[in-house]
Amino acid sequence: MGAALLLAGCAGHAAHQPAPRPAVGQATTPGRIPPQDFAPGLTGEEGASPQGVILPNDPSAPADTPLCGHAAREANSIGATVHPDITPTISSCAANACFDAQTGTYIAADGSRRVCR
Fold first, then answer.
1. Rounded CA gap, 37 and 34, in Å?
2. How far apart are the C-alpha atoms of 42 and 88, rounded to whole Å?
3. Residue 81 placed within a domain
4. Exposed, middle or buried by CB within 10 Å (0-12, 13-18, 19+), for 99?
């Protein structure tokens, strides 16, 4: 009896109307993502320093730092496979502790990730 009373209360409401959908030709395009650049020094190209100022890298953590765990070392070796041209002989960035060629970052002496310049 209670279910019939509840359903009777719904009878006075209008049927649900779905929201209108845009026509197929009116599809909206997402905003364009601007091109991304590598950090200076990663590609072997040297950009002009602002007003002749040389931006040095922050000191790196020791190469055997425990902050660079097994998973990070494995990810970095994959990055080195993808970007084989980034080596310590070509780029000083690759000599830093736990250098990630995919992001262009390394672990600094204070333990934080820094972008290599």
1. 10
2. 11
3. yes
4. buried
21 is written with which tokens?
A: 């959908």
Establish if 80 belongs to a structural domain: yes
| pLDDT beneath 70, residues of the chain | 1-16, 19, 21-30, 36, 38-55
Candidates 1, 116, 21, 104; CA nearest to 59 is: 116
Structurally, the chain folds into a number of domains equal to 1
Q: Which domain holds residue 73?
A: 60-115
User: Is the Cβ–Cβ distance between 49 and 55 less than 8 Å?
Assistant: yes
Rounded CA-CA distance 115/73 in Å is: 17
Would you say 114 and 104 are in contact if contact means Cβ atoms under 8 Å apart? no
- The pLDDT, as a whole number, for residue 110 is 84
